[in-house]
Amino acid sequence: MFTPQGPTFRELAVQALSSVEHGYDLLAPKFDHTPFRTPDPVLHSVARALERIGPFDSGLDLCCGTGAGIDVLGTVCRERITGVDISAGMLAVAREQTRPGGPPVAWVRGDARALPFGPAFDLVVSFGAFGHFLPGELPGLFAQVHSVLRPGGRFAFPVVAPARPGSPGYWALLAFDTAMRVRNAVWRPPFVMYYRAFRLSDVRRELIRAGFIVDLRTLPEFGRREDGSPRCRLVVATRQGLGTAAGVLSESDFW
Questions:
Q1: Domain 9-239 classified CATH 3.60.150.10?
Q2: pLDDT tens digits for range 169-218
Q3: How far is CA 141 from CA 53, 146, 203, in A?
Q4: pTM, full prediction
């Protein structure tokens, strides 16, 4: 799962016993050599899907980490791009890796639960960050995203189908989440990272409550499961403006 350039077991242990912010500061130099970085096939698939919706003027990568999602924004945004993250270490790596060309990129240190922006963006994306938010934090998180989007702006992020109960992936994620809950019960500061807490049905409900119209789009590159449902979807939530209707789904079946 890790390349030779990735973190050692000791480094991961030190990170796991830190706060989320400090833990990612420590992990930042080697983060892109871990399986925690969003895979390129997912990024490319999302970019293709957004190209069919856009183009957009300004874009924000929420919880941008080392900047993997910035290239996605660069393909669909024409004017400017911003990456925001709570970890100064991750932002430092992102700045070093900024590619020349395309719209100008700004890197901002900030908490996704208290974004330091007004309604300045047409598109907000996020990749692999939602495990750091407890279910009770979703209303506030989505309200923040809503507040930084212009009317008609989009909030887009991929969601992978949950592992089937009893499958190896199911047991692996259950074991990880259980270990994190035990760790947080006996150790401070807490390190919030739960893979099984971000449920699509809850996400849909809270997005609609925050004032979004919710649309699900299949990412066809990842195929379908045995029951015919997509393995990976793109959630596209649109901030309601003049002439928009109540929140709806384009696909009736969801996990």
A1: no
A2: 899 999 999 998 999 999 899 888 888 888 888 999 999 999 999 999 99
A3: 24, 9, 11
A4: 0.88
